[in-house]
Each structure stands twice: as structure tokens, then as C-alpha cells.
Amino acid sequence: MPAGLMKPWVLILIGAALVLAAVAGIRWYGHDQYAAGHQQAALEAQAEAQKLSEQYRAQEAAAQQSVEANYAKYRGQILASQAHAADLDAAASGLRAQLDKLRSGRAAANSQPAGRVDAGAAPDFIGVIAACAGRYDEVVRYAGQLADQLTGLQGYVRAISSPLAP
Q: Quick one: DSSP state of residue 3?
């Protein structure tokens, strides 16, 4: 059968089949491209999440290391202040012993007749009190310095323990 003698419904049928094949091919190509783009976006998102997680872990490790270093530093200062306080306690005990000795000497002097009291043997209470006051001032200043350092350390710990901004 020659081409010019084909029936019109066959031509319409062939044309419809070609149109359906073209539409199906375009849909398949579009779906394939969409799936590939979606998969690529998912991989990129996963890589970004991994990168952010590693950055956060590194920041957290640096913050922890800093906290531990500061803790060790301030712990050493606390131990030194405790040793200094023990030294001051020992000095205060020595001063108390001197006061007791002076008091017992004064009591013995008071038991002697009034005419025999030696004025040079009387204890220097003002000097002892001044020495105690001086030591007390040193302790107060040192305690103030430690309180300031502790306040600074507490602020630092609060700052690094707050949630990191994304």
C-alpha cells in the first residue's frame, strides 16, 4: 500500500502514539532530574550538618580545655591561700601565747607589793594589738583578691557553659 493511500485514522493513531511517547519521555526525564537534584541536596545538607557538628565539637573541646586550665590555676591559688591562712593561724597562735605569757606576767606583777612594780616589764598591749590589726588587714586584702578572682571565674564559666549560638 502506497503512503498516500493510508487511512486517516491510522495516521491519527500513529501521531497520538508519537505524542504519548514524547510526553512520557519528557516526564521520565524530568522525574529523573528531580530525583538527582533531591539526592544532591540531601548529600549537601548532610555534609553541612557534619561540618557544623565537627565545629561544635572543636569549640566544646576548646572550652572544656580552657575551663580545666583555669580550674587548675585557681585550685593552685586556693591551695596557696590555704597554706598562707595556716601560716597566719600559726602566727596568731604565737601571738595568743605571747598574750597569755604577758597576762600571767602581769598577774604575777600585780601580786607583788605596789612599790616594786617595774614599769619596763609591763606588756606593750598597743603594739600587740597593732600587729594583730596589721595581720588582719593583710588577710582581708588577700581574701578580697581571691573573691574577685572567684567572681571572674564564675562569670567565665557561665559564659562558656551557655548554649553556643548556631
A: G
**Residue 47 CA neighbour count, 13 Å, CB half:** 6
The 10 Å CB-count burial string (b at 16+, else e) for 59-72 is: eeeeeeeeeeebee
CB 146 within 8 A of CB 78: yes
Residue 160 contacts residue 63 (beta carbons within 8 Å): yes
Q: Is the pTM of this model over 0.85?
A: no
Report d(CA 2, CA 9) in Å as an integer: 16
The single-letter DSSP state of residue 164 is: P
Closest CA to 149 of 74, 81, 51, 69: 74
Radius of gyration of the chain, Cα coordinates, nearest whole angstrom = 46
Per-residue pLDDT tens digits of the chain, which is 166 residues long: 455 566 888 888 888 999 999 999 889 988 888 888 888 888 999 999 999 999 999 998 898 888 888 888 888 888 888 888 888 888 888 888 888 888 787 766 666 555 554 555 556 778 788 888 888 888 888 988 898 888 888 888 888 887 764 4
Three-state secondary structure call for residue 130: helix
